[in-house]
Each structure stands twice: as structure tokens, then as C-alpha cells.
Design goal:
heterodimer, A: 844 residues, alpha+beta, Rhopdopsin 7-helix transmembrane proteins, Beta-Lactamase, 5 domains, five-stranded mixed β-sheet, 61% helix, elongated, B: 545 residues, alpha/beta, GMP Synthetase, Chain A, domain 3, 3 domains, five-stranded antiparallel β-sheet, 22 helices, disordered C terminus
């Protein structure tokens, strides 16, 4: 076989392979009229090239038959090109199409009778096989018809572009392909080119161009190349070709080496063909998969992983981080900014970005033209499309400039339940937009990611909403106590190297106010007061409703003067709003505020609360409607004030305390004198600690009342001479709660509760009733604990002998850091040792 | 992507959407754009000295506040900043200053700064108008690179002079003469060279001032007849065969049918854009002559290109992003003329009444200098929506300048001040006068001066109406360069005189208890005063109607 003959086999073969491959690929796509038209066109191409190939190969039933197939294919091509354009442009009216079809069918039938191409013959000139034919004068008819048909197709294209349904650019591959085909066919008639199979080559080029055009329109996908059927057919064709070309060698080989098995030769060849086909199929499939499917599969896997990951997180920050990470991994060359909708204002604020360097405070208002446009076009779009919209006209220059600076290329809306909930702006810093653009497939992938993100975002928003509700007080919408306590711990940590101030505000006589004006009026005041506090604090701190009539405000990094200023303004507001409200009934409502701060006096969060509480208590005791900043006083000043304060406190509570202590005295005299001693020791210790006069007085009163609950303890247990049994000890332990339940009914003495409640707590957490440890135990309780233990140790009881003072001191020392506060305990020991605590030997 | 690239790469509907998509806006969407862009302008103005001048009552936070707090303005309010071009006082740095003549005002000219954003909008809008000029419906336009464009609009620094510069940066059109050459020529030269080139090579698009187009159209036949002797071999060789064929066949038809040569015999225009006052008067005749109905666009030095007609060419739609528009109804205008201290009320685009005439008040957007500025143009709201074109926006027709200004053919404007000055300069014994704008039988506008001549004066006795007209015309020409151009370019004498009996004006005022407006008196008033003269006996000395 000459080279030229081989060329006439190889090129038509490649053309057949190409056409059949495309045909099978398109067959797997969902059929519509456009796909059907393309299949028709591919069939004519296949007939053309297959006829040409088999003609050269002189296959059964003979060259004449294959000639007819080939020439019929060629003659039908113009009509099928027209038909393809007709479907592609969605042209209306089928008369011309019908007319053309009939005309071309008639021409084809006439051609089969050799009207146009005469005397086709296959001749062998001794060197190669050639195909000879003559052309009649009637040939001008199909040529003119071809020109008319192609002109009609061109007209459809022009009309379509004019109507604005397509741009000329979309048809460029077609113009190129048809141009190449036309030139190929014409040049095949030239004497210089007649020895080259250029027409079939041009035919396959055209097929590829048209396939590309459909791919650009997203009618077909390249992934279709990797489907089983086309690959199998290609493998089969290749192996057949291989077999045809090597059959002689195989036969010789078989006869030389396996002459005794010649009867099995056919079977051997068949097996060989099958094996080669399977191998080729495997190789082709692998190649296609590598080229086309790998990226898609990876994307799908990433999407699945992303979906799984986002379903596991509920917090918005974590979700955003996952989303940004996903975008960065799948689109490494681009940057994404994520804007979330603020449900209250409707604005979209930037909450995340793939690159922290681009994160800033960009935001789009609810009436921003891009938001309005996205509400109408909730799908991923190129930024350019928005720029062409009518909404773009409403953009401010600086807004346009900002988006240009961001180099936005794609706008990806995230829609949930028909509502736009987020936007992702995808941008690239590459100057060549074509290079950095996201393909149609990429857009679809982005939309899938946005859909997954939207569900997760919705869940996160619901979670956030619930969390927000759980953190809020329903009446005032301020933070509640629980959240405030969590929050102040964080704020305290942040302010550890600076300062933090806490203010407690307690409305004076609010119960009375409610009784006078009704609960509704009371609730209204609380709401308005809460709003005022929020306005006054305005970002400097956190406001919470701490109790029924109590508010708390933290001021991180602020001195007490900031809280004082805020409290004064609040006082002013209350004076104007309540006292001079203009209503006929003159109302009266005030508040007392207590301020403590770190590191000025408090050392931890607990102390901040304790001291603020103390300051409130002080304000209340000094006539209410005042603001008190808690401060440790130096000794002289404290001493000077203490008498006055003590007297005031003693006077206000003396009668109650007297009544209670008299009751315990009547029941158990030991407890009475023990309480007096404890009160004495504890208040001395408190003074030495530098607590202010009121605090010292509170501790003294707590000392007097700390065992008041023993009134309820059976006398048998109180005066038992032996060790208490486990059950009896449990009953004995209940005296603490009993004391509290008695004191809490005395509002004027409720301030002693923390000290009384905690006087059996241990520094190491092993005490009762709450098992507090360290500095979480109120300072008053720690003082009482030492005083109580000391007095108990040096007292003679029915079940034990009295210890000496030295022994008791030794015991305290031994238990520093376990039972007792090591600092305060050491101070207590020194006070006893240097006689500042005057030891009263109990009567026993 | 330039406009030319878009023509190649984008579909017609995409291009249409970008440039003409505003025609699909609903009234509400239109107003949203207007209000949003106004607030941008307020923000820009609040940060500059010029703006603070008008925000004495504070910076407005809404459209309502803006209309309440900012006074209506005229060029006088800006003259001290704009004439010396004090850029530091403006809301944004301008990239261009446009001028226009204004002899009738207190200042010889007006200047308007253009920012980059304004030019960008101007460009988009003028390209939109160009698409519409060639269109037959939505998405149906016919523009391609290399179109031949004859351009007969006033050059820079007039506003129309910017069109070629803006368009040529977006699409390669063949201007005749080229933009560079045109810059070196006078307006008259530019027109002559342009027509000659068009006659040789054909033209696809025509931008021109209506009055000039009209003049050229009327004289084309005469020119064609007279041009025979001048045609040389060189001209024939350099003329496109298509044009020779058209000319010959037109001549043949002309002789055969005994008709006149019309521009449409020579040129097959794809688009025809005209600008200027009185356009409405010329449109039918221009359509008849050129075979295509001209598309009118509205604009000016201060407002830039602010409106265009659509494919049906029967009403202007104002661009939503060029200016913020307010409208003063005609009744309010007359009330203001009677009570100069009265501040007329304005209405917004969505508050108009079909058929009413309104004076336009604009706030130039995108960093422009004018706030609630009275341009001095009166428009009629033709309809509030156009169901046949599926346009849901009001459409307008340019009526004229405000009554206190007489605009002739878009070339020159007369005000009371200017006419008074000319009369004083002429030293004619005119004791009292008033002027109106009227039209002749061909539809051309002219200034009609009603003058009381002192017959006791020897000079007055000798004065005929023709003499009076010639004398005043001479002074008008020397005082106003644009008036001179009118005469030179269009060969028209836009002045007519009617002499009134001495004391007629005072008598009218006495009888009616109101003065006659010096300029722009309603037609009814004019008729009334003429009737009054007749009633007084003796008839009107020399009235030309």
C-alpha cells in the first residue's frame, strides 16, 4: 500500500473516529430539537467519511455502495447545516426548511441515478487505487442550491443577532468550521490536491467546531467524552484497524510457530481482538478520566466534605471560616468577601474573607442598587452583567469606585427561603480578566456551594437567634444575669493589665412603686430605664438586668469616674422622666448605685461584685438615691468613720439582732456567747484587713447571727456529750441554711447572708453548703470561718476539752491553705499572738 | 470593554440593556434612582463651599428636606464661583469646563464644570441616544464601527462639541470632517467641508442643530442646481460611484417627475439626531426631506445630555442619572411674573399632569455645580406613559425658553435687559415697548418688538417701520454675536417691528391694573392691546401681522 493510499485510509479513519465519537457522546445527552439536529448533521458527516474510508478499503459490499453512502452524505450536509442553524437560533416558520429538505432529498435521489456525478469508477493504475468520475452540466444545480442553503442559514444567524438573541461571536466556531469544510471540499476538486483526502479531514474539523459551539452554549459537556459507549466504540475501531493492518503478520506468525493449531487461528484472533479492545478501552477511559473527570470529581468530593463540615457547626464565625476556606481551596487564584445580612437593618456587612488582608468594614445598605438587583436576579452572575443593568445607574460614584477597587468579577448571592441572606463577592487581582475569569462550570459549582452555605447559614442564624434570646432579659431586652457573668469574666481577662469598673444599680423602693402605680407602669419604667442605660453606656461597656430591680454595668478599661458619670446622667434622666414626667400624679423613683473597680480595690470578678454590692448597701443605708464608689480607706480615716458608721448600723439593726440573739440565748447560752466572740474576732480581723467601716460592721453582725439557725437544731444534738453520728452531723450542718432562711425574711439584714452562708466553706473547696473555694468565698465568710473555728477550739464543750490559745493558733497554721485563707489566716494568727484580738475564754 | 468591542462581543439585547435599559424602568424605580443620586449630590455639596452657600438651613437628609431647604437658583447665584473657575469651591474637581454665550444675562457667558463621573454618564447617555436614533424598536438598532457621521453641532467649549470626543473614545466612527480637522475650522467651514464629504462618500448618521438642518435642507436643491458648473473631474473621480449613481438617478427622477432634489435622494440615513429649540416645528419637514424622522435630544451647557426621544420619535424621556428633575407649572410661572417675590412651587417627575407645560428645574448629579437650578427651558409633558412603546415614564416635548427669554433658532436669546440695551444704543425715540416670540408662515421664529414711537420727536415722525427694523437690527447684530451668526449662517432676519400709538402700554396698564411683561407677554394680552388701540380710533399706525 502506497503512502498516499495509507493517507486515504488513515485520515478518513480518523474522521470516522472523530464523528462517531462525537455522535455517541451527543447520544448520551438529553435530546431536544437542537441535539437532534446536531445528530443529523453528525450522521451526514459520518456517512461522508465512512463511505470514503470503506470505499478506499474496498470493504463489502463494494466500492459502489460506499461511494453512494459517501456522496449522499456530502449532498445532505448543506441542508443539515441549515437545519442545525435553524434549531440553534430558534427560528420560526418551517416552510423554507421543508422546501430545502424536499429539494435536497430530490437532488440526492437524482444523484444516485448519476445525474450530477457521472460514471463513478474505482480503478487501479498499478500503483494505487483511484476513484474516477465525471461531472455533468447539471452539477450546477446542487452547487447553486448549496450556496442558497448556506446563505439562508447565514441570514438566520444575522437575523438572530439583530433581534438581540445572540452575538456574532457565538457563531465564530461555526463560521470557521463551515469555512474549513467548504475550502476542503472545493480544494479536493483541484488537480494539485486531488491526491490528498482533505475533504474528510475538513469535515471532522467542522464537526469539532460545532461541538465546541454547543459546549459554549452549555448544551453538551466535555464530561460526556468520558462515558462508556463512545470510548468502547473508539477502542473497538482502533483495534479493528490494528488488526486489519497487522493481519498478514499475525497470520504468518501463527503459521510459522503454531502450524499445528491452525484450526484455532480464528478463535485466537478473536480473543486477541477482544483483549486489545478491552486494553484500549481501559487506557482511553483512564486518559479521559484523568483529563475530564478528575477535576469534576474532586469538586464534587470537596462539596460533599464542605456540606458535611458545615452541618456540624452552628456558630456563625466557624461557618464563615469553613466557607472561606472552601472557596480558597477550590478557587486558589481568587479572593472572596462574604457579606451577611443584618436582620434588623437589612444591610449587608462584611463578615469574612478568604484573605484577612482584604477584610474591612465594607457594607451595602438594604437599598443599595446591587442588593436590589440581586433580589431580582438571585443567581451567580458576572459583575459585568450587573454593570449593564438599569439598577447600576443608581450607583454612587464612590460605590462604583469601591467595587472596582475590589476588582469584583463574580457576584454570588446566597438565598434562603426566597430571601437574600448573604453575598459573596469574588474578585481577582490579575489584570487580564479573561485569564482569571470563572468558567460556566465554575459558576455552577459556586452556586452549589452557595446553596449548601445557605442552609448552614440559616441554621446558624436560628442558633444565633436562640442564643441571643437565651442571653436576653425578655422585658428590657438587656443581657441577663447569666450572660453578664460569662461576659464579665472575659472582659476582666481582657482588662487584666488595665482596669475595669463595675456598677450595680438598685432601684429604691421599687416594690412600693409597683404597688402605687401598678406592675404595668413598673415594667414600663424598667424598659425605659434600660434603654436609657444602653444609650448612656453606648459601646463603652455591657449593660444587664441583674435582678428584678437591679441593673449591672461593666466598663472595661474605664476608671470609676466613667461609671460615676454614667450614673449621674441616669439619675438626671430619672429625675426628669419620673419626677417631672408631666403626669397629674407626681411619681417618685430613685436608685442607689454602687461602683467598684479593678485593680483599685477588687482583685477579681467576685470581689468586684461584692464591693459593688457593699457600695449599694452603703448608699441604701445613707438615705438611698445616691452613688457610692467603694474604696478601702486607710486606717485613721477608717477608724474615724467607723464609730459613726457602726453606730448607724447598730442603731438601724440593733433591735432585730437583739431579738434574734436573745432567742438563741434562751435556747443555748453557749451559742449566744460563741456568737458574740465570733463577731468580735471577725470584726477585728476585718478591720485589720482594711475593709471599710460598713463592711466591718456587716461582718460583725454576720458573726452575731451566723449560728442563728441553731434555734431549729434539736437540743439533744446541740448538747450531746459524745461525738455526733453521721445523721446528727447532717442535721447539724443544716443550721447554715436555717440561718439564711431566717435572715432572708429580714430585708434590712439581708446583706449579712453572703458571710453567714459561707462561714463553713473551706479554702480548698471541701466545705459546705456550696463547696466554694479560694477567693470565691466571700471575704466576710472567710473571716467568720477563722473566728468561728478559733472560738470553737478554745471552748470547752460537752464532748471535748478546751484547747489552749497556742494550740488553737497552731491548728490554724496547720490548716492554712486547706481550711483557711492563707493570707487572712496568717493575719488572724498574728493578731491573736500580738494581742490585738482579745481572747475571751468561753464559759464552757 | 469599549462600545465597539461590545458591538462585536455582546448580543444586541445586552447592549440595549446597558444603554437604553432605563426605558424599562417603572416610575417607582426611576424615582428611586433619582432620589438616591440626589442624596449623593447632597453629600458632595455639603463638603464644599459652594454647597454650604445653599445649605444655610442645614444639610438636607431627604428629598423633601432638600426641596424645602434649598432655594431655587439661577446662574447669578453661581457666577462668582463659576466664571473665575474657582475649582476649590466645587464639590468635585472638574475635568472640563463648558461655556455658552449669554449676552442677555448679567454676565457675557455661562460656564459649567464637568466632573469625570458626569462625563461618564454623558457618554453612556449619548451612546444610548445614538442607538435609539438608529432603532426601530427594542433591541433593534443599527450601529457599526466605521459609520460615516456628518456632524453639524457647535464645537467645544459648547456642550454639543463634546459629542465627537466622547463617542470616538468608544467607537471608531468616521466623522466628516475628522474630529482633529474640525477643531481647526470655524463652525461654518466645518459644515461646508462636512456636507461636501458626505456628498462624495455618503453618510450614515447625522448629528445637527435643527435650525441649521432645516436651513440646509431648504437650500440643498438650490445648491445642487448651482453646483453643476463647479463640478470638476477631480471631484467626480473622488466621489464614490454609489453617490454618483444616486445623484444621477435622482436628477433623472427630478426631471421626469418635475420634483425637487431632496436629501433622501442622496443619503440613506440610519440615524438622524437633532438638537436645539424649535425642533418640533421642523421635524415633519425634515422627515419628509431626509426620509427618516429626526430623533430629538435635550440638553445644554448646565444639564449636559439629559433626555432623548425613543424609536417612535414622539417625545423625550429624561435620563434618570444626568440630573434630578423638578418642574414648575406654567401657572406658577405667570404668578411669579406678576409677583416677583413669589417662590413658585415645584413638582417631581411622578407628580406631573399630562398636557401641562412646566419650567424645568435641575440639580446636576455626580458632582455637578448646580442645585435646583432654573435652566430657563419650558417642556410640555406629552403623556405619563406610552403603552404602545411600553414605556412607563413621562415623555416630554420641548416648548420654548421661559416666557422672559426669547430664543431664536437655538442660536441666540433675548431678554428684557438685552433689548433695552439695544434700544438705548440705537437712540431711537422709543418711549415704551414689549417683545414676544412669534413664528412666520414657514414656521421660523422671530422676535416681534411692539414699540411706542414718540411722534413728537422729529426723528420719530420720519421713521418708517422698515427703517426702524433695519436700524435696530444693525444694533442687535453689533451687540450680540450669535444674532449675527443667525443672519450669516441661516440668512434670516429674526426681527419684526410693530409701532404702537404713544401711551398705549400705559393705557392698557391703567385699564387692567396690571403691567404688560416686557418680554413674553401672552398672546391674549398682545391682542387686547392692539384691540385697545383700534378702539381708541385712528387704528394702528403700522402693524404687521
Amino acid at each position: 500500500m502506497s503512502w498516499n493510499e495509507r493517507l486515504f485510509v488513515v485520515i478518513p479513519f480518523l474522521s470516522v473516529v472523530c464523528n462517531v465519537f462525537l455522535l455517541l457522546t451527543v447520544m448520551s445527552v438529553k435530546k431536544d430539537k437542537l441535539i437532534a439536529a446536531f445528530i443529523g448533521l453528525l450522521l451526514t458527516f459520518t456517512a461522508w467519511s465512512t463511505g470514503s474510508l470503506f470505499l478506499r478499503m474496498k470493504l463489502f459490499p463494494g466500492p459502489e455502495f460506499w461511494y453512494m453512502i459517501s456522496i449522499t452524505g456530502i449532498f445532505l450536509v448543506p441542508f443539515f447545516i441549515y437545519n442545525f442553524v435553524y434549531c440553534y437560533t430558534n427560528a420560526k416558520g418551517g416552510f423554507i426548511r421543508g422546501l430545502l429538505l424536499v429539494t435536497w432529498l430530490v437532488i440526492s435521489v437524482l444523484n444516485l441515478s448519476n445525474v450530477f456525478v457521472t460514471d463513478p469508477q474505482v480503478v487501479y493504475d498499478g500503483v494505487e487505487w483511484r476513484f474516477e468520475y465525471g461531472i455533468s452540466g447539471w452539477t450546477v444545480i446542487p452547487v447553486v442550491m448549496a450556496v442558497i442553503t448556506l446563505f439562508q442559514a447565514a441570514q438566520l444567524i444575522v437575523q438572530n443577532c439583530k433581534n438581540g438573541n445572540a452575538s456574532m461571536g457565538q457563531f465564530t466556531p461555526m463560521f470557521f468550521g463551515v469555512g474549513v469544510m467548504f475550502l476542503g471540499t472545493v480544494s479536493a476538486m483541484l488537480p494539485q490536491m486531488v491526491s490528498l483526502p482533505i475533504d474528510t479531514f475538513a469535515c471532522s474539523v467542522n464537526a469539532v467546531c460545532l461541538y465546541y459551539m454547543l459546549y459554549k452554549r452549555r448544551v453538551v459537556q466535555l464530561q460526556g467524552f468520558a462515558s462508556d459507549a463512545p470510548i468502547y466504540v473508539i477502542a473497538l475501531l482502533c483495534s479493528v484497524l490494528l488488526l486489519v493492518n497487522t493481519f498478514d503478520h499475525i497470520e504468518n506468525f501463527f503459521q510459522r510457530y503454531f502450524s499445528n493449531l491452525v484450526q484455532y487461528q480464528t478463535i485466537a484472533v478473536a480473543v486477541l481482538l477482544t483483549v486489545v479492545t478491552l486494553l484500549l478501552h481501559k487506557v482511553f477511559y483512564h486518559l479521559m478520566e484523568k483529563v475530564l473527570l478528575k477535576a469534576t470529581e474532586e469538586q464534587e468530593r470537596n462539596l460533599r466534605e464542605f456540606s458535611t463540615a458545615v452541618n456540624k457547626v452552628m456558630k456563625l464565625d466557624e461557618l464563615l471560616a469553613l466557607y472561606c476556606d472552601f472557596l480558597q481551596r477550590n478557587f486558589p487564584g481568587v479572593k472572596a468577601r462574604v457579606f451577611l445580612k443584618n436582620r434588623l437593618s437589612g444591610d449587608f456587612r462584611m463578615k469574612g474573607a478568604t484573605d484577612m488582608a482584604i477584610a474591612n468594614r465594607d457594607a451595602f445598605e438594604a437599598d443599595h442598587p446591587m442588593i436590589v438587583w440581586l433580589n431580582e436576579h438571585p443567581e451567580a452572575s458576572a459583575y459585568e452583567i450587573f454593570c449593564k443593568s438599569k439598577n447600576y445607574r443608581a450607583m454612587w460614584s464612590k460605590e462604583k469606585k469601591r467595587l472596582e477597587e475590589m476588582q469584583v468579577q463574580v457576584i454570588l448571592p446566597v438565598v434562603s427561603g426566597g430571601e437574600l441572606t448573604a453575598i459573596t463577592l469574588i474578585s481577582s487581582e490579575q489584570k487580564d480578566k479573561k485569564q482569571s475569569g470563572i468558567s460556566a462550570g465554575g459558576m455552577a459549582f459556586l452556586e452549589s456551594a452557595a446553596a449548601v452555605f445557605s442552609i448552614a447559614l440559616n441554621n446558624a442564624a436560628l442558633y444565633e437567634e436562640l442564643r441571643r434570646k437565651a442571653q436576653r432579659d425578655p422585658l428590657t431586652n438587656l443581657y441577663n444575669r447569666g450572660y453578664f457573668q460569662e461576659n464579665i469574666a472575659r472582659e476582666f481577662e481582657l482588662s487584666r493589665h488595665s482596669q475595669i469598673t463595675l456598677m450595680l444599680i438598685n432601684l429604691d423602693d421599687f416594690r412600693l412603686y409597683n404597688e402605687l402605680y401598678g406592675m404595668a407602669e413598673g415594667d414600663l419604667v424598667l424598659k425605659r430605664f434600660a434603654e436609657t442605660l444602653k444609650t448612656l453606656v453606648h459601646g463603652r461597656g455591657t449593660v444587664a438586668r441583674y435582678g428584678g430591680k437591679e441593673f449591672v454595668i461593666s466598663f472595661p478599661m474605664c476608671p470609676p469616674s466613667a461609671a460615676m458619670d454614667c450614673a449621674k446622667r441616669a439619675q438626671e434622666w430619672m429625675r426628669k422622666e419620673i419626677l417631672y414626667s408631666g403626669s397629674r400624679t407626681k411619681k417618685f423613683l430613685t436608685f442607689s448605685a454602687g461602683i467598684s473597680s479593678y485593680p483599685t480595690n477588687a482583685g477579681n470578678v467576685h470581689e468586684l461584685f461584692t464591693y459593688a454590692n457593699m457600695a449599694v448597701y452603703s448608699a441604701k443605708n445613707n438615705g438611698k438615691n445616691r452613688i457610692v464608689v467603694y474604696q478601702r480607706e486607710d486606717k485613721d480615716e477608717a477608724m474615724a468613720k467607723s464609730l459613726k458608721s457602726k453606730r448607724a448600723l447598730a442603731e438601724s439593726c440593733a433591735s432585730t439582732i437583739y431579738a434574734l440573739t436573745a432567742a438563741i440565748d434562751a435556747k443555748d447560752h453557749y451559742t449566744f456567747s460563741h456568737s458574740n466572740n465570733v463577731a468580735e474576732y471577725a470584726s477585728t480581723l476585718a478591720e485589720a484587713l482594711g475593709l471599710d467601716a460598713e463592711h466591718v460592721e456587716i461582718i460583725r453582725q454576720a458573726g452575731l447571727l451566723h449560728d442563728i439557725g441553731k434555734i431549729g437544731t434539736p437540743e439533744a444534738i446541740l448538747s450531746k456529750k459524745d461525738r455526733l453520728t453521721r445523721e446528727e452531723y447532717e442535721i447539724m450542718k443544716q443550721h447554715v441554711e436555717a440561718s439564711i432562711s431566717m435572715i432572708k425574711y429580714l430585708p434590712s439584714l439581708d446583706y449579712v447572708v453572703p458571710s453567714v452562708l459561707g462561714h463553713h466553706e473551706r479554702w480548698d473547696g471541701g466545705g459546705y453548703p456550696r463547696g466554694l473555694s479560694g477567693k470565691a468565698i466571700p471575704v466576710g465568710a472567710r473571716c467568720l470561718c477563722l473566728a468561728d473555728s478559733f472560738d470553737a477550739m478554745i471552748s470547752k464543750r460537752s464532748y471535748k476539752e478546751a484547747m489552749s490559745v497556742e494550740q488553737a493558733v497552731q491548728e490554724i497554721r496547720r490548716n492554712l491553705g486547706t481550711q483557711f485563707d492563707p493570707e487572712i489566716g496568717q493575719l488572724f494568727v498574728s493578731l491573736v499572738e500580738n494581742g490585738k484580738i482579745r481572747v475571751n475564754r468561753p464559759a464552757g | 470593554m469599549t462600545f465597539e468591542e461590545k458591538l462585536k462581543k455582546c448580543s444586541a439585547s445586552e447592549i440595549w440593556q446597558e444603554y437604553c435599559g432605563f426605558l424599562d424602568l417603572s416610575m417607582q424605580e426611576y424615582m428611586e434612582i433619582q432620589k438616591r443620586l440626589l442624596m449623593e449630590q447632597v453629600e458632595l455639596m455639603a463638603g464644599c463651599q459652594l454647597g454650604q452657600r445653599f445649605f444655610r438651613k442645614g444639610v438636607p437628609h431627604s428629598v423633601e428636606e432638600f426641596r424645602e431647604m434649598v432655594p431655587l437658583t439661577r446662574f447669578e447665584d453661581y457666577a462668582d464661583v463659576l466664571l473665575p473657575q474657582k475649582e476649590e469651591m466645587l464639590p468635585e474637581k472638574p475635568v472640563l469646563w463648558l461655556h455658552t454665550t449669554w449676552e442677555g444675562g448679567d454676565f457675557p457667558s455661562k460656564r459649567a464644570p464637568y466632573t469625570e463621573a458626569m462625563l461618564e454618564t454623558y457618554k453612556t447617555n449619548i451612546l444610548g441616544a445614538m442607538l435609539l436614533a438608529t432603532s426601530t424598536g427594542r433591541n433593534q438598532f443599527n450601529v457599526w464601527p466605521g459609520m460615516r457621521v456628518l456632524y453639524s453641532l457647535a464645537p467645544l467649549p459648547y456642550a454639543t462639541g463634546m459629542f465627537p470626543d466622547l463617542i470616538s473614545s468608544e467607537i471608531d466612527l468616521r466623522f466628516m470632517p475628522s474630529v482633529r480637522e474640525a477643531r481647526k475650522m470655524s463652525f461654518g467651514q466645518q459644515m461646508r467641508v462636512g456636507y461636501k464629504m458626505a456628498a462624495k462618500h455618503d453618510m450614515d448618521l447625522f448629528f445637527g442643530m435643527s435650525s441649521i438642518l432645516y436651513g440646509a435642507t431648504r437650500s440643498l436643491n438650490m445648491l445642487a442646481k448651482g453646483s453643476d458648473s463647479k463640478v470638476g473631474l477631480k471631484d467626480i473621480l473622488t466621489t464614490h460611484p454609489k453617490m454618483i449613481w444616486r445623484l444621477l438617478s435622482a436628477r433623472y427622477r427630478q426631471k421626469r417627475d418635475g420634483t425637487e432634489l431632496k436629501p433622501k435622494d442622496l443619503f440613506h440615513l440610519k440615524g438622524f439626531v437633532c438638537v436645539g429649540t424649535d425642533t418640533a416645528l421642523y421635524k415633519n419637514e425634515l422627515e419628509e426631506a431626509w426620509g427618516i424622522r429626526p430623533l430629538e435630544i435635550a440638553g445644554g451647557t448646565e444639564p449636559s445630555c439629559m433626555g432623548t426621544e425613543t424609536w417612535s420619535k414622539n417625545g423625550l424621556v429624561l435620563f434618570p442619572d444626568a440630573c434630578f428633575y423638578e418642574f414648575i407649572p406654567e401657572m406658577e410661572l405667570y404668578r411669579e411674573m406678576e409677583e416677583p417675590s413669589y417662590t413658585p412651587r415645584t413638582y417631581l417627575m411622578n407628580e406631573l399632569v399630562a398636557g401641562q407645560k412646566y419650567e424645568l428645574v435641575i440639580t446636576v448629579l455626580k458632582g455637578g455645580a448646580f442645585l435646583r437650578y432654573r435652566v430657563g427651558d419650558v417642556y410640555r409633558c406629552l403623556r405619563l406613559r406610552n403603552p404602545s412603546d411600553k414605556i412607563n415614564l413621562p415623555q416630554f416635548e420641548y416648548v420654548d425658553r421661559v416666557p422672559s427669554v426669547i430664543d431664536i433658532a437655538g442660536f441666540t436669546r433675548f431678554t428684557q435687559r438685552e433689548i433695552q440695551k439695544v434700544i438705548e444704543m440705537s437712540r431711537l425715540p422709543i418711549t415704551d415697548w414689549f417683545a414676544t416670540k412669534e413664528y412666520d408662515e414657514t414656521g421660523r421664529s422671530y422676535l416681534h418688538l411692539y414699540a411706542e414711537v414718540d411722534l413728537s420727536d422729529a426723528q420719530g415722525l420720519a421713521m418708517s417701520r422698515q427703517l426702524l427694523r433695519d436700524h435696530l437690527s444693525l444694533y442687535f447684530r453689533s451687540y450680540d454675536g450669535d444674532y449675527n451668526d443667525l443672519k450669516r449662517l441661516l440668512n434670516v432676519e429674526p426681527l419684526e417691528i410693530t409701532t404702537l400709538r404713544s401711551g398705549s402700554v400705559a393705557e392698557f396698564q391703567r385699564q387692567n391694573g396690571r403691567p404688560i411683561p416686557k418680554v413674553g407677554a401672552p398672546r391674549e394680552t398682545v391682542l387686547e392691546i392692539l384691540r385697545l388701540q383700534n378702539d381708541q380710533g385712528g387704528g394702528v399706525p403700522d402693524v404687521v401681522e
